[in-house]
Prior knowledge:
Blueprint: H1 2-26, H2 34-42, H3 63-75, H4 79-103, H5 108-118, H6 124-127, H7 133-154, H8 161-177, H9 181-203, H10 210-234, H11 249-255, H12 257-269, H13 278-281, H14 285-308, H15 311-314, H16 317-336, H17 351-368, H18 379-383, H19 388-454, H20 461-468, H21 474-487
Helix pairs in contact: 1-4, 1-5, 1-19, 2-21, 4-7, 5-17, 7-8, 8-10, 9-10, 9-16, 11-12, 12-14, 14-16, 14-17, 16-17, 17-19, 20-21
Amino acid sequence: MKGKKMIYGGLPVLGILFCFLYLNRAVVDVAYTDYIRLINSYLPDVWNPDKFFVADVLTRIPLNYVERILNVTFFGYNTVVEMGLGVLGLGASAWVLAGYCRKHQVSYIWYGMIMLLLFSLNKWEMLTNGTGWVHFTAFACFYYHYTVLDRVYRGETKRGDTVRMCVLPFVITLGVAGPYCAVYSAVMVLSCICVAGLRVFRAGSLKKSSAEVKKWMLFAVCVLIPLFLYIWSNSCTVEEHAGAVDIPLKTALFDNPGFFLVFFVKSFASTVLGDECIRNVLAQDWQILLLGGFVIGCYLLALYLNWKNRIYERTILPLVFLAAGGMNHVLILLSRWIFMKSDYGMSSRYALQFQVGIIGIFLTFAFSGRSRMTVFPSKRNEKENAPKERVRKENARQETAQKRSRMQRKSGWSFVYLVLALVFVAGSVYTTCCEWKKAPYRKENLIEKREAALHYEELTDEELERIFQYKKGPDQIRRAFAILEENKWNVFRE
């Protein structure tokens, strides 16, 4: 038992250490791009309540305010500290999955592949941008809530699970998730409705299952309330997207319907090969589309296997993950088509959202490859009133033969599932190797930015915008670095 705990708990630790090694190889402490906006908005007075109690406070992820106060107070506004928090958030997701896999006895092979996928560097853009640290924490919270949902669904409720199901949506949606709450809320509400419907179907009538239905509807309402509060707060936000086209979705859809299909399919291809290295392997667009089609096919196969093997009767988590992954692809299409670039959905910044669906595929394959033992009594012998001993022996013989045949079929399909999964693993390993080699060059680039920041007053407007990748005016950049310099934070820290 201790060995199992070490394996299931040890891989997340190794993954965290690997990501810290990557950060050490790829980044230095310097504020640029999104940090320019954050510095101008919230610094230097991070304790000022006027900067917190604004109309759209719920969209600004309140947990960020707490972290920002701690970062300024103890670390002099260090961006690498926030990147480290992102790695710990990723590790928290891994520990949630480790607990689930250990509970359901997912084999070490499948568990190892899930961990390889989770700690792949295909999400380098999120790992090296400290402003996104809280999103890793959000996904850890999503995974945890999904596992609580699965536990309550299976009837293995722990003490306090009912309260968790009611309270977690408020904490996650309003405190941690930010814009990522849309898919999380949709998945939770849909899951609650489906479970309530399944309870009615099994009971045979609504009256017999009324208590269960009321409970699951209460869970759904507890998800919807914080979602509506977030939407209300978001209505006070003014969003600007540099480079976006100013045309309605309906017009773009009718003018160029093929673009939306290509965008959508390509986004699936990025779950196998990262956006920066995919062209090293697949030079033509049709090859990328073929890879995207392969991933979509794996999604459909996983959905079919959940139904065929009745995996949903034992655990609902694989279906929840599949739904979340698919919805994230749809969400990125609906929110990012405005840039009219078919490769935009392949960006590394979306890998965190897309990988949940691949984990669902892996879990489905892992459960589908198992051999199940079922006793089929001999009805013929029963009709002939054969002696009980003879019936028992015949049943045992049939059971053994059927078990052997079932295991042979399962082993054949298990090999197929393993081959399909290895395509994802090979792509993740290749992407990770490519990114590991690029890491020193990313660090050199950040060192140049750091040197430029120390002499920001000597740079021209064009140099400021180019070096610090902020397109909303050089004056904003100068103001941000003036705040840092005055308080001796970040690159100016002694």
